[in-house]
Design brief:
The structure is a homotetramer of 401-residue chains.
Chain A (H helix, E strand, L loop, with lengths): L7 H18 L3 H10 L7 H12 L18 H12 L4 H4 L6 H11 L2 H12 L4 E5 L16 E5 L2 E12 L6 E9 L10 E7 L5 E6 L12 E12 L10 H37 L1 E2 L2 E2 L4 H35 L1 H25 L11 H11 L6 H15 L2
Helix pairs in contact in A: 1-4, 4-8, 6-7, 6-8, 8-9, 8-10, 8-11, 9-10, 10-11, 10-12
């Protein structure tokens, strides 16, 4: 059947996911934040632990991993609508063990890890017993150009010794974070794309100092967190290196495609929820003699939101479809497109929804401001809009004789 | 197969259509305009007549009519990419007998005409022997609200007598225009949506005066033309009325869906061509020491154009798919969405392409300015953006409890 | 002299203000935040107290109050550039005793207070000994329409008794906040604009409960704060009523003009600083082989920022000039214009600056994200964009016969 | 007096100009177009000749020339509002002898011409007896970069011989066009900005062939016209060279400032008129049960138009003021700003006005579509937006440490 209507398998999972969210997630959003506060922000959230057990029992677990028998076996296109649904509540991805950066890390370990890596790290991650982080961005350089990375990974006997300063390392705040996948340079003299390597660093290795949590607008996103970290002579066995020296860039490229689809589908979920919130709000508020819902400017924004969301969703599904058909590398134009289109769309739709809520829209009683901050962050994550547009524009130019 | 990849039938037709255009249409664009000038603008264009014969012979004829054995039997989704292709050259739709308003008129006659109507008007239209027009818009009222229509259709014995002033009646300039489908009021006292009727008026009926061609920006679009016409006691047999008195609004609604898909796919074709023109142009122009193609702002616009075109195309294909699945009426939200999204997108992409061409971009050596004018016109045709957004916004509001 | 070049008086004050900020404010931005944290957020900030003394000594005090011998005697036009300068650092307005809502409250007391009100509240406010708040917005209704206000002010003998729930009451977090000017209804049965009154409520009156601070994109803006407050049978002497029953709307209107100029000039200061930050940043960051400062898209945004800032500043100065010439009421179209134009401009310019900073742009090491949140908030404060556009559009329509 | 309120002199001239336009220009707009048609498009328009006499008699003549006793002696700032007024009707500038490119040519002759040049060409231009053109843009190169110009001016004894192809040469259609100021290269081997020279070419010199009029969105702008011209061994006396060999670029720079102010003020006039048209139209049109003037989206656009026009006008007046104060060269950032801001603003405002008119908006019964085409053209004229933004962005970057 043509189009992007859900197939039976996706439709069934989506129905199950939605009813789980209705029953267990939405009613507990306030409780989640209360538990984070009560726990002092950087501790395990009891609610999440309970819900993870329930989600696993409901068969809503590890839905993200395509082309592997370790996950649910869904294609990118099949997973996409489920990912959108999870995006509506920021902590729900964790409940279903589908949260970044664990997903990208699991995919990296699945594709490029040794059997020992899989045994020690992938399996506990798949089981939801540990969490992980991905240490790439550095404060001193424009990290959108991965060749700028300055941290060092130096061979010393049977070990590698790691030095550097990273920041915006998401997930290090999680009390269960046990593993960092670290990107640095093994050979600064090599070819531009062969200098970098990736290495596995257990969280409890000596020499790792968390300097501070970065804030996103004013949010610390506890207990997940986006940390600034100093690595001072951190020593790990040489077997922790992924694939081999100089292959870091290659691994980075491989992990980006699915991660971008996920980011995009989640922000589409945020936008869809914002539109629903906007519609509900404007029906109940009266100003200057009539409900906001009858005011032309509001109706126009609702219409434009619907158009923009549907366009971004179709483009993202098309990118997922292409990834399934021709692989991540061949689909890179499509992936670049959605990485620009989806978060920008979401920022606009959420902004309109905030405006329709009055001051409440930027406060803590609605998810809007938090979601705006998240969607705005996605405009940098995995490369800023400008880099994607530049690459996309050059691909397009190359197509025309 | 999921997605909107072409099925075999469409792929084959598209390949044939493209090679026809490469061979017969693009090389003759300048000749077309020369013949229009040489013929005094409002006469038959010999080139078009020749190409019609060739197109019919190539099996590229009447591709538009879905769900009927009179056309090529394509679904809306199958026809859409062909329609996009034709949109790249404004006179090519005529070559393939797929031009508005004939298409809408043929569909109207097919769905609502009597056997006699079909014999006398539909068959010659399908054969490309005559052309037709659709007389709805009036200068005196806001015609986006069809209930505003003021022209009268009054029963007088076995005839109806028609009076009124219409404008922007496209196609009346064609020397072969033989039929007007006319919308007017048979009963101004009836319910708001039951006052209107549609009636067939032979072009040569006494009382029809073409006042002047309207211009679109500075284009008269000869020989097609957009005419202002006075109907002064125009008398036709009562059997010319379609369906019955008071059913004009219903017929108008029915014809709009496919027409909007066609408009949208054609403007997408214009946008795609503009993007190609922009890419070609910027590679050959140097300013301030480097080709425009290496300047960041240009690359950004090319990237944004690609994103915007692909989003609009996917949305339009989705609307076509929905029309095929659930019918024009159920798909009205999707149709409203594309009617807003596609021409606005095209105006922006073409505008960027014009800007990249310098002054040449708004002149007669490229199709850009003409296509801009056409795409801009589509933002009014079949209802302005604002009406579609308003209806769409209200549908969306109604979906949320 | 034509134009908005500074006159001598303004030029001299501006020079003094700038050197004060260079010497005392910019170098202490980090210290300010550290002291807020160390003080537990809702306590007096020692730095601010020291700087207030210095500012008073430097003659940089109460610059805001036009047409009064109690302030510096500057016109709105003369004060505007000073206000812009203060906007560059959010706590600096407080240092110069020019912070909202104190400024609006002082102006209200100056224009509408009794001698006793002035003695008890205005003088200590002018001296910077106490702070104040303005309690208008309510959670239950769309407060952009002031007639929606539901809180009650009921006469009871020689007192008024106040009940209601307010939120986003800025400044109540300040430990020195001693006064609330409260808007409520004295007569719900009166004419639509005669139902409201304003009354002075000492902060320590029994029955006032601060429920919680509201957050602005995650920021609590401590120690200023934006509080939700319950007023439960709060009793004050009848003499605390301003002007008389039913005159609340009139007072609200009068206070809005200058407050809007101030808001706008401050956000222009934020935008100007963001542009400076953007320019500095892009010179020091290299990506894909050249500094960001040489990349076309960045240069274009810098140019557009300059154009947008200068336009918004000129429009705001024009509004200030009109207020000085013809009064706040006659200048209401100009005031509505800037209220829309300035914060929207600032949001866009700051957003570009954030994007040029990469992830750092939304974190705590730059003022950008905080300023974005503030500018975004101004799009609601004193009425959302939509209300101002609506009123402005109607005024414009009324001008054309 | 601060601000940009008109001084007495400007106010008096503006009042006189407005009443002239009310009496003689607006009532004759249709007649103008009829006479152009009746005259076969490329002939003298009797109406214009009559009105020129009247305008001269009314003291509304040569208002544009600043800092010279040959014109009205107005500063740029004083002339600006008059220029805006003329912009409302495209042929009115000619009536007041204030039309481009004559104005720029007169200013060039005044500043850089010899006494003989002034006697032979400047005086008849000032008297309105002849018209002129400025031949710079070439089809073969990106002329926004003046160093790309390829036409040659070669010394041959006491003459120069000119060869080249120019297009978009405005005003050559005028039957009274007697002079072309031509830009070409005298020394392609010289420094990049010293290769060009300017030379005076009498229109009737042998070797000049007008190839065709270029169209602007379908408009030929007859009888003014934008011509493509071949110069084939056109020979003029060496004394026709302006200033000296290699000084063409310098002259080009000098003439641009005032021309850009004029362009900008005229498009502001177009925008202001479009806004008036929009307001009038929406009051008289009813759709879906209420006048367009009561529909929120329309009101919002009217408000945004007012904001955008006022901002662009203030910015342009500020640029004029700076030119008067510090000279064209020092004011180049301000001039670049308005060159971007004003025509883009006008395109948007006119587009909204067109949309509010329905199909009528793009036809010949309103000036909107023609004005849109003109304003759109200004986005290229004297350099496209992109070049101005690039220069402005670099100036801004240079300001910051």
């Amino acid at each position: 059947m043509p189009g992007f209507d859900h197939n039976e398998r996706t439709a069934a999972l989506l129905a199950r996911l939605r009813s789980f969210m209705q029953e267990h997630i939405y009613p507990n959003e306030a409780l989640y934040h209360r538990q984070v506060d009560e726990g002092g922000r950087w501790t395990r959230v009891p609610l999440v632990e309970e819900l993870k057990t329930k989600a696993k029992a409901a068969g809503l677990w590890n839905l993200f991993l395509p082309h592997s028998d370790r996950g649910a076996g869904l294609s990118n296109l099949e997973y996409a609508p489920l990912c959108e649904e999870m995006g509506r509540v920021h902590f729900s991805s964790t409940v279903f063990n589908c949260a970044a950066p664990d997903t990208g890390n699991m995919e990296t370990l699945e594709r490029f890890g040794t059997e020992e890596h899989k045994r020690r790290w992938l399996q506990p991650l798949l089981d939801g017993k540990i969490r992980s982080a991905f240490a790439m961005t550095e404060p001193a350089v424009a990290s959108c150009d991965a060749t700028n990375i300055e941290s060092s990974i130096v061979r010393d006997g049977d070990d590698y010794v790691i030095n550097g300063r990273k920041w915006w390392i998401s997930g290090v705040g999680e009390p269960d974070c046990a593993l960092l996948i670290f990107m640095g340079k093994t050979d600064p003299a090599a070819d531009r794309h062969k200098q970098q390597s990736m290495i596995l660093i257990p969280r409890d290795t000596p020499g790792i100092t968390v300097v501070r949590p970065m804030t996103v607008f004013g949010y610390d996103d506890a207990p997940h967190g986006h940390m600034e970290i100093v690595f001072d002579n951190v020593r790990v066995p040489a077997t922790n290196l992924l694939l081999g020296e100089g292959r870091g860039f290659e691994i980075a490229q491989a992990r980006l495609g699915p991660g971008r689809i996920h980011h995009c589908m989640r922000v589409i979920g945020m936008a869809e929820r914002a539109l629903e919130d906007m519609c509900s709000r404007v029906k109940t508020r009266v100003a200057f003699g009539k409900p906001l819902a009858e005011q032309g400017v509001i109706i126009e924004r609702i219409a434009n939101s619907r158009i923009m969301i549907d366009q971004a969703r179709l483009l993202t599904l098309q990118a997922a479809h292409r990834m399934d058909q021709v692989g991540n590398k061949e689909a890179r134009a499509e992936i670049a497109m959605i990485k620009v289109a989806a978060p920008n769309m979401a920022c606009q739709v959420i902004d309109w929804a905030m405006q329709a809520h009055g001051a409440a829209g930027i406060g803590q009683d609605f998810v809007l401001a938090k979601h705006y901050a998240n969607a705005r962050k996605i405009r940098f994550a995995d490369g800023p809009d400008e880099v994607h547009r530049h690459q996309l524009g050059r691909m397009e130019l190359a197509r025309h004789g």
